[in-house]
């Protein structure tokens, strides 16, 4: 079971990443919920200091940046495990 | 050799031969000023932002933390301010950065030196100041920003700010360092280019508005009118500019048109720079974000100390640049 989560500090950039990831996941026809958490302590607990963070299967795959949609889609596809 | 001469020639050629505006008219003057400044600013910004973001790829937040942990006293503050200049700032990351540093054992005063320098001395502010006012003003701005960040961090550090933090922050954690593969040269070039393009895409309308206003003021507003605004050069000009800057939240590009017009209308350079510093370092949304980790009293101290620093630096600039 794959999990996708966006961690942010509640800022505009974080919400934008959440929206984009949700859109890409639905365009790919994947049945994976994309959750959003604004618990900054979790970012820090991962040893990270930038927001937003994209976690796929609890692994940070993007930190502090929003790539263009094509790159974002590739990152998502590359990090999901095949079921 | 004047590297900008070809741009001047190009602007003159466009105005006179292509657009056929009457030579020596006000319209010709304004238009050629606009074309020349726009091309010059975009070219310089491109080079400066690219160079800064490329250099930045060598410093990651984790390296900042490693360098600052357990650095006590003023050396920590100086290093933190310099690192703040060298790392990109996004208000999204202010809280994780603050928590990450403080929980790893970086003193709060040192962390604040970093958090003051980072937004104030950013690549857009420096690039715009350099393009419009030259290297001396850009250099003074960087120097002033560093001095404020270092001194404000030192002063706040003496006020036991550790007791004024909001949540129970556990200090002295051993942070888990994320091992991220170090990028190759072409990765660095590519991401610097991507970053530069993103920034230019975001700020180009402000630049056009700014240069347009500047060109208009330059050519159409009579010098006698400038005296009307000279009120801004009274003793209260600097504190007033600083106060006005706090509720405004914009990036340096959004503020630059205003600064350019103010200076064009005779407002003293130090007053204008204070305004820009207050907008970047003391913005209301930023303070609301910081409220999540700092008690109101610490926010008050932060605004008071940084604000006082900006005002003093503004007077000093006005004195230097008379």
Order of helices and strands of chain B: HHHHHHHHHHHHHHH
Largest interface: A-B, 20 and 22 residues
Radius of gyration of chain A, Cα only, in angstroms? 12 Å
Distance between the termini of chain A: 7 Å
Report low-confidence residues of chain B grouped into runs of 5 or more: none
Biggest beta sheet summary of chain B: none
Percent in strands of chain A = 15-25%
Q: Report the span from N to C terminus of chain B.
A: 29 Å
In sequence order, what are the helices and strands of chain A, one letter per element? EHEHEEH
Number of strands of chain A: 4
Cα gyration radius of chain B (Å):
21 Å
Question: What average pLDDT do the residues of chain A reach?
Answer: 87
- The chain-level mean pLDDT of chain B equals 82
Oligomer classification: heterodimer
How would you summarize this macromolecular structure in one to three sentences?
With 83 residues, chain A is an alpha+beta fold. Chain A has three helices and four strands; from the N terminus they run βαβαββα.
List the helices and strands and how they pair.
The complex is a heterodimer of chains A (83) and B (322).
Chain A: E1 4-7, H1 12-27, E2 34-37, H2 40-45, E3 53-56, E4 59-63, H3 69-79
Parallel strand pairs in A: 1-2
Antiparallel strand pairs in A: 1-3, 3-4
Chain B: H1 5-18, H2 26-56, H3 61-68, H4 73-86, H5 94-103, H6 108-120, H7 123-133, H8 135-157, H9 185-220, H10 223-229, H11 237-245, H12 252-264, H13 269-281, H14 284-290, H15 296-320
Structure, described:
The complex is a heterodimer of chains A (83) and B (322). Chain A has 83 residues and is of the alpha+beta class. Chain A is built from 3 helices and 4 strands. Chain A has a single domain (4-79), classed as Glutaredoxin (3-Layer(aba) Sandwich), CATH 3.40.30. In chain A, α1 (12-27) links the parallel β1 (4-7) and β2 (34-37). In chain A, α1 packs across α3 (69-79). Chain A is globular, with a radius of gyration of 12 Å. The relative contact order of chain A is 0.26. The model of chain A has no long low-confidence stretch (mean pLDDT 87). Chain B is mostly helical. Chain B has one domain. Helices cover 73% and strands 0% of the residues of chain B. Chain B is built from 15 helices and no strands. In chain B, α4 packs across α8. Chain B is globular and about 70 Å long. The interface between A and B is medium-sized, with 20 and 22 residues.
């Amino acid at each position: 079971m794959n999990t996708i989560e966006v961690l942010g500090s509640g800022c505009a950039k974080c919400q934008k990443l959440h929206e984009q990831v949700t859109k890409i996941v639905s365009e790919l026809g994947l049945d994976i919920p994309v959750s959003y958490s604004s618990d900054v302590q979790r970012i820090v607990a991962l040893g990270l200091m930038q927001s937003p963070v994209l976690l796929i299967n609890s692994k940070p795959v993007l930190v502090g940046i929003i790539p263009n949609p094509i790159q974002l889609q590739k990152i998502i596809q590359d990090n999901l495990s095949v079921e | 050799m004047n590297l900008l001469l070809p741009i001047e020639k190009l602007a003159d050629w466009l105005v006179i031969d292509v657009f056929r505006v009457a030579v020596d008219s006000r319209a010709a003057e304004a238009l050629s000023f606009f074309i020349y400044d726009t091309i010059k600013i975009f070219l310089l910004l491109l080079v400066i932002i690219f160079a800064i973001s490329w250099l930045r790829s060598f410093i990651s937040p984790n390296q900042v933390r490693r360098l600052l942990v357990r650095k006590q006293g003023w050396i920590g503050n100086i290093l933190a301010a310099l690192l703040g200049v060298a790392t990109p700032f996004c208000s999204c990351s202010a809280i994780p950065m603050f928590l990450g540093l403080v929980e790893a054992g970086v003193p709060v005063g040192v962390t604040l030196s970093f958090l003051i320098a980072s937004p104030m001395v950013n690549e857009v502010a420096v690039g715009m100041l350099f393009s419009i006012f030259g290297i001396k003003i850009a250099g003074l701005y960087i120097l002033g920003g560093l001095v404020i960040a270092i001194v404000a961090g030192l002063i706040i550090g003496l006020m036991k700010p550790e007791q004024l933090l909001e949540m129970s922050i556990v200090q002295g954690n051993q942070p888990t360092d994320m091992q991220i593969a170090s990028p190759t040269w072409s990765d660095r070039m590519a991401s610097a280019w991507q970053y530069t393009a993103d920034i230019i895409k975001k700020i180009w309308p402000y630049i056009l508005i700014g240069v347009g206003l500047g060109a208009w003021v330059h050519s159409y507003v009579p010098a006698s009118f400038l005296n009307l605004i000279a009120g801004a050069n009274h003793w209260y000009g600097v504190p007033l500019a600083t106060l006005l800057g706090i509720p405004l939240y914009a990036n340096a590009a959004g503020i630059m048109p205003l600064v350019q017009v103010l200076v064009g209308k005779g407002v003293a350079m130090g007053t204008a720079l204070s305004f820009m510093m207050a907008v970047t370092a003391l913005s209301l949304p930023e303070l609301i974000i910081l409220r999540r980790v700092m008690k109101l009293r610490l926010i008050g101290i932060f605004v008071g100390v940084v604000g006082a620093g900006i005002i003093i630096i503004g007077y000093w600039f006005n004195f230097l640049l008379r």
